[in-house]
Amino acid sequence: MKRIDHHTRTLAAAVLLCFAAFAAPAFAAPDDRAARTETRIESMHARLKITKAQEAQWKAVAQVMRDNETALEPLMMERKKSAATMTALDDLKSYADITDAHLQGIRRFNPVFGTLYASMSEPQKKEADTLFRRGPGKAMHAK
């Protein structure tokens, strides 16, 4: 019985740590989220070595990133505001709304990024592949 209790406590601690690691950035103040988006845009621009010829395509990519953040912000803030009083069903609906917004954002992002990607040199594509393989949080900080 002690073994089960130990495993249960370990699992609970891991779940809480994961939630804290992923939820904290999501619940950041709107200005912080917007600033992080701008930092991500600037970092990606530099890492991908966007050329003058690619600037128009890049601007479309950056705008979709900003628009996606703008669409997510009210959902995240409402979830934060209501977290203490949400029912299980409210929580699931909120999570579904956020997940849907993420999916819609990816669907908006794919075609504009695809256009930019098609114009990239092989070294740029390789860097983009690396950035996206690592994920947005890790990509920004990777060398």
Kindly list the characteristics that best describe this protein.
single chain, 143 residues, mainly alpha, 6 helices, elongated
| Main sheet attributes: strand count, strand direction, barrel closure | none
Beta-strand portion reads: under 5%
> What number is the mean pLDDT?
81
The total of beta strands comes to: 0
Unreliable residue runs: 1-26, 139-143
Shape: elongated
The radius of gyration computed from the alpha-carbon positions, rounded to a whole number of angstroms, is 19 Å
What is the total number of structural domains?
1
The computed structural class is mainly alpha
- Separate helix tally: 6
Q: Give the termini separation.
A: 47 Å
Order of helices and strands: HHHHHH
- The helicity comes to over 70%
Task: Please outline the helices and strands.
Layout lengths: L1 H25 L3 H19 L6 H28 L5 H32 L2 H13 L1 H6 L2
Helix pairs in contact: 2-3, 3-4
Description:
This protein has 143 residues and is mostly helical. The chain has one domain (28-141). The chain is built from 6 helices and no strands. Helix 2 packs antiparallel against helix 3 and helix 3 runs antiparallel to helix 4. It is elongated and about 50 Å long. The relative contact order is 0.11. Mean pLDDT is 81; it is low at 1-26 and 139-143.
Short account of what is shown:
By secondary structure, the protein is an all-alpha fold. The protein contains 6 helices and no strands. It has helices at 2-26, 30-48, 55-82, 88-119, 122-134, 136-141.
